[in-house]
Amino acid sequence: MMRRWRMVEDDTHFGFKQVSSDRKAGLVREVFESVADRYDVMNDLMSLGAHRLWKDFAVRLSGVHPGDQVLDVASGSGDLARLLIKKVGPKGSVTVTDINSAMLGKGRERTVDSGNVGNVRYVQSDAECLPFSPAAFDFICIGFGLRNVTRQERALASMFNCLRPGGKLVILEFSRPTTGLLRALYDAYSFTVIPGLGRLVAKDRQSYQYLVESIRKQPPQGELKEMMERAGFERVDFSNLSGGVVAVHTGYKF
Q: What are the DSSP calls for 124-184, one per residue?
């Protein structure tokens, strides 16, 4: 009986599929290794450029000041990191992490090409067990990466541990549209257009099918707020963008 319960407990989702928890990270890694070269182009096409506005909004909420120590978790191709580098200035620093070496390399390449080299460092790491000292950062963000984490509660706890007292976390993630009509339109677009774009542009329909499915498995706004509070964050709030297609959650460590 105990053994059967453990098997169920260790299951998780990879899109709409049930997989063992120890397999998910590897499957997600394969997805992002496959799409790394066309990742930025696909983001622009899928969101019609709106992802740039969402990221700008998240950074405006950051409250980051010159000289701050900042951590960008699951940074991908580094859009948020490059915006934050400008905010911290030469006396601050931005640490960029991603579990996937291909995406970490792509982000580093783009950041170097933009002329930012002096106050940024790159660390390949799992969001569930960030390899940094407690209270190392003034601000932490994770953009469109939380839904790919196998155990989101562990990632939230790890980020909480890395924040200094008074520090702030910002999570930018796909969420739940706020009206039934918008949800229906978004579903129709997501399940037909996005995998098709993945096939034509990235030559990989399957990875973008996973993307669409992973969004539906992500906890909605209220659930994620409660998860952050259980991890220890206070004054947790969220802002819906594009009718709830995306949400920005904020929380503080006191």
A: E--GGG--S-TT-EEEEEEES-GGG-S-HHHHHHHHHHHEEEEEEEEEEEE---SSHHHHH
Residue 148 belongs to domain with CATH number: 3.40.50.150
Question: What domain range is 39 assigned to?
Answer: 32-178+210-252
Chain centroid to CA 179: how far?
A: 24
pTM: 0.92
User: Has residue 201 been placed in a domain?
Assistant: no
Q: How many Cβ atoms from other residues are within 10 Å of residue 76's Cβ? A: 25
> Could you tell me if residue 108 is inside a domain?
yes
In this predicted model, what pLDDT tens digit does every residue of 155-211 receive, in sequence order?
Answer: 999 999 999 999 999 999 999 999 999 999 999 999 999 999 999 999 999 999 999
The token pair that represents 210 in the structure block = 């996973």
